[in-house]
Description:
The complex is a heterotrimer.
Chain A: E1 2-6, H1 7-17, E2 22-25, H2 32-43, E3 50-53, H3 57-69, E4 74-78, H4 80-85, H5 87-95, E5 101-106, H6 120-124, E6 131-134, H7 138-155, E7 159-164, E8 172-176, H8 180-186, E9 202-204, H9 210-242, E10 250-253, E11 260-265, H10 268-278, E12 284-289, E13 291-293, H11 297-304, E14 309-314, H12 324-333, E15 341-346, H13 358-366, E16 375-376
Helix pairs in contact in A: 1-2, 1-7, 3-5, 7-9, 8-9, 11-12
Chain B: H1 3-14, H2 33-45, E1 49-53, H3 57-62, E2 74-76, H4 82-96, E3 101-107, H5 108-113, H6 116-124, E4 130-135, H7 175-181, E5 186-191, H8 195-207, E6 212-217, H9 221-224, H10 231-240, E7 247-250, E8 253-257, H11 266-270, H12 284-304
Helix pairs in contact in B: 2-8, 4-6
Chain C: E1 19-20, E2 35-39, H1 45-49, H2 56-63, H3 67-74, H4 81-87, H5 91-95, H6 107-121, E3 136-140, H7 144-155, E4 159-163, H8 172-175, H9 184-195, E5 200-202, H10 213-219, E6 222-225, E7 231-232, H11 248-258, E8 266-270, H12 274-285, E9 290-294, H13 314-322, E10 326-328, E11 331-339, E12 342-355, E13 361-365, E14 371-374, E15 377-380, E16 384-385, H14 392-395, E17 415-417, H15 428-447, H16 498-506, H17 519-523, E18 529-531, E19 542-544, H18 554-558, E20 564-568
Parallel strand pairs in C: 3-4, 3-6, 4-5, 6-17, 8-9, 8-15, 9-10
Antiparallel strand pairs in C: 2-20, 7-16, 11-12, 12-13, 12-14, 18-19
Amino acid sequence: MLEALEGSAAIAKAVALCRPQVLSAYPITPQTHIVENLASLVADGQLRAEMVSVESEFSAASVVLGAAACGSRAYTASSAQGILLMTEVLYNVAGLRVPVVLTCANRAISAPVSAWNDQQDSMSVRDAGWIQLYCASNQEAVDTTIQAFRIAERCELPVMVCVDGYILTHTLEPIDIPTQEQVDAFLPPYRFSRMLDPLRPISIGNLVTPEYYAEARYAHHQALLRAKDEIEAADRDWAKVCGRRSGGLLSVEGPDDARIGILTIGSVLGTLADAREEYPDPPAKLLKLRSMRPFPADAIRHACRGLSDLVVLERALSMGSGGIIGAEVRSALFGEPNPPRVHNFAAGLGGRDMPLEIYPRLLKAAEAPEPTRFAIMDVELQKLPETER
Amino acid sequence: MAADEKASLFELRRAQPAFRGLEAGHLACQGCGQALGARLVTEAAGPDVIVANATGCLEVFTTAWPRTAWRVPWIHSLFENAPAIASGIEAALKAQGRLTKVVAMGGDGGTFDIGLQALSGMLERNHNVLYVCFDNEAYMNTGIQRSSSTPHAAMTTTSPAGKARMGKRHLKKDLLSIIAAHHIPYAATASVAYPSDLRKKVRRGLEIEGAAFLLVHSPCPLGWGHDGALTVEVARLAVETGVFPMLEMERGDVVAVMQIRNVRPVTDYLKLQDRFSHLFDESPEARVELEHLQALADHHIEVYGLRGTSPDPRDSEGADTVRRGGLRWG
Amino acid sequence: MGLKTPSDALVTLTRGAFAHAGSSLGLKTGDWRVTRPVHVHRASPCHNACPAGENPQAYLALVEEDPRAAWSKLVSANPLPAVTGRVCHHPCESECNRGRFDEPVAIHAIERFLGDQAIEHGWDYPAAKPPPDALEVAVVGAGPAGLSAAYHLSRRGYLVTLFEARSEPGGLLRSAIPAYRLPRSVVEREIERLLSVGIRLEPNRRLGRDMILADLEKSFRAVFLAPGAERGREWSVGGVVPRDLRNGLELLQEWISIGSLPKYERVAIIGGGNTSVDLARVLKFNGVPEVHVISFRTRPGPGVSPDEAMPALAREVKQAIEEGVIIDDCRGVTRLILRGEQVVGVELVHMKKLPQPDGTRKPVAFEGTETVLRVDHVIPAIGEEVEPFGMEAVLGANRFFAVDAEGQVQGCRGIFAGGDARLGGGTVSDAVGDGRRAAEAIDRYIRGVALAAKAAPPSIGIGELNLNYFDHAPRAEIRFLAPEERNAEAEIEAPLGAGEVARESERCFSCGECMTCDNCWTLCPDNAVLKTMETASDGSHYVFDYDYCKGCGLCARECPVGFIAMVDEP
Lengths: 389, 330, 570
């Protein structure tokens, strides 16, 4: 049913529809509205769950780990500093192969302190072993959140649903909230094969020696790679229920004969889609990356066939190296016959506005004689002293 | 041993009249106080319990994959989050309507130091969890480094005794006051030298609704420098000297103490342990430390009222008395 | 820390590397050991001290739950507990480790309780009668030694003929111990039960008069001589003997059997033994105004060594004093003061038995301390020796039988002796013990089996117990009739009740024997001590699982009773 909702409220409703039994909450902008909405739903009796208001994000992640291991569907949300603080736990949850869903309301990381959006937080933990899915819109946030529980529980891998802070979370728009029946048909009750149960006692979290650690890592890595199928399947199956796709691992929009592609992730896709209508020339494809982990290298290679130039636009960077997605895309394309030239830009850092006009500028950059290996867009050097430029 | 004898020993193990939540075959040092404590705790808690264990000796020596000595469902996550894991487990059980008990276990490192925040949060929210801290007074798993629980003047690798320093400078953190400030329904201290008392306190902690905390004094033969056979003796002396007071608190008020009928001088306790050996070189500095430690013990006795005044031998509730035919309670 | 891959077959990694409950049992940590705990039965001091060879620790363990089982255990060594539980000097209590903690366990009173229970309930000895074709052994003398020998021989399957010179069995038990110490009914009931195990009693048969030793040797496989010491020792002072001198033991026996006593006003009994004290008390109970007991030894009590003390039981001496008997200890008689042939007094001098240069001890008189005590009768009660009639060949020139450690008379194959008749004997408990040891020796002798030399292992001292686990508890109070209520017939010492006995038995430390306290089972950090319902082969209820025991030694250290020792790994 179509409701005019703030993004956070919609995500909260989506979570509630999935019948979690345990929620943990620690406030951090811009995620806070999600957990506040959930708290309201619990207080009103619309959601029957244990809400644990913890004393730090470390504990927020730990609570959902404990709950999920004990047989209850569990959820939490965080951003930026909170994500970093709980990093140790994130690795732990993934390595223990416990299904948990977490919303990361993307926000820039201190220092410098910023409350505004970029994606440095979720990108910083991309190696933790979680599935990471990025939402281009609030509708996608709702749909992806629901799919995330199923993916997590089938793969026994935790899923991080990334949603651009403020841009999506604090934006009011009409969003279709599915019915409880629809969600129940799609998402069965929580079952965890290694549930902590006195009738079948096991020990979880053992020490593993060198003789078996590589195998453990291998198995985890393989599980993530295989999760690609599950991510696609969830998108397809949910589309059957509600009629909407969220883009699987990667989706491509635009004319088949376009020779320029722009690959990006998150809410900027909405801006670029609108811009494409305003600036139809030159024609360009939009490569909408949804799954950052597992990284859909095959799909990217396939989507890049026939492209002369690929612009990779991202909202984070690896300090001292350059773009993150840019590097992974180049790595995926290495060895392809006739790969496109890759131009890598970071923009929107710390909440810097990304207006429509960014689109033609990216197209222009794609036509430059030399491809930009990596650049941060819109840096105004006059704001820096000479020695820092 | 003949095969049928071996088989019958295995059957006998399965038929023991007490629940042994911690099984044989773990890798603890000989005479490990923490192993004994953990075995007693799970015995008292029974099989219908889920344990969340922090990183530390106990976790490492019980669960080197593929083996585990635990016979109860058990989870180890990280060093500093056992109370938070336990909170999550408790919330899940509540949501599912199950009555299984939750016990969190951690060492002094994981409780006094790195896990203090999570512990405070769990107690403040009054989760129905019993938190058991096995206090061996240092980071033993990583090789005997000092924690805030290490007693004043004790030697550890990061607080060694030398010409310029006499062991750890700071006092043992008064964790009990911190726990008291949370006003949880039940908190207590216990010792592996008094197993009946320990089991009784575990049961009390599990019976009450809400958060409970139990501090179990657990000598470490390797870290404290004594023979494994003396673990119980050392723990007993810690109690009999007043160094480790045995108390029970409800809502932050001390409601019961185990009285000491014959108070022993602190040196009786210290001289059994190499970690205090530098205090016995008869130098003036060592003398000052000994007196200080005696004063600290005397202070405990005074503040908690530990001196036994009643002639009734049962004033320790028979905590240390044996009877023909076995312990009839605890 | 020994974190290696499992040495068993290749295991496949579980998801998230979880492990199955109790899988640690696959790692046998027992191979860490350099020493291992073992159960060791240690002799308890009460056992080593008992002249009859009882093991009080063993039957105290049973008293609370099953008094009959406790009694059965007791009578496997001593068939007459209702008797010894009244007259024994209980060295078990002197050696009791509990006595060095607070007060010794009241073993003596518990023994009496068990004996009385058996009489009250008519319990039978747990032993079968020997078959009618069993080998035959002769026992001469139906006093405590002979009765004990007959009982033990019968238990071992021998047919015993018990010859008794008098008309009734019992020896000094019947004839010389007054009823206020040992009621007649108790003696009769104990002996009646004892004789019913298939022993053939032949009263009125005196060796030498009615049969000769040589015939016994021919007709029986072996002979046990327990004729007691019936011949009073000669007594005189400087060669002088009063005209109407009566022997103390004779007087006592006469009073016990027919109840008559000469009329005395002021009496001095010479000698510090039980006969002397008993006679003194009997005289007092019968109204003799002034009764003295004169002994060169010291009145028994705390701080007085057995070497120096009067041989009489300390409690008897104490009661005698309460009843008005005057004990003149550390005194000797130097002169009889006569008028005509009548004694009018004795000269006493301070005396002490002191060690001599040659190592012996002799009574030494201290010149200048003489006093005169006005008495009209002097009664010696200075002990007896064996009446040799009928046993000259075996006795030789000795006053008592010289026997080896087992009771065989030196130089006489097949002839054994014990009780007061043996050199070194003298108490009822010793006599009972002699009978048992001789029965064992006779059994081996008949079967042709050599003696396995076994010295009694030293008993476990209090330093080897872990006293942290015991609480102080007061000893049961044994009550006596107030002196003014006492007479010569009624038993003076009151029995303990069943509840008191049960509580008192709990005070036993169970020295050197498992008391199933669960300490080892409770304190093993490695869950390597297993408890068993049935008794294990070593008599305890615990088994060490050596597959996992790391040899830390906690169980041995914390065992309250010293039952566990750490020994080197084989």
